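User: Sequence in, structure out. Go.
Assistant: Echoing your sequence, followed by the structure tokens.
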Amino acid sequence: MRNNVLWRKIARIVMMISENLHISSERALDLFYQSRVYQMLVDPSYGLQTMSDTYIYDEFILELRG
């Protein structure tokens, strides 16, 4: 996946996190960058890049709750 496409995907997911958790976008970005889900997203071998934004968001929330 091209980097600019991946960055837009990350931005959409971070905005979902920010809106749904009622936190700043900066805090949401920080939480997402520290997550296992983010590490899997940037590693093409997992295939997470092909999943929907909502699926990745849900996986992030599951990780956060775990």
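User: And one key feature?
Assistant: The two ends are 29 Å apart (CA to CA).
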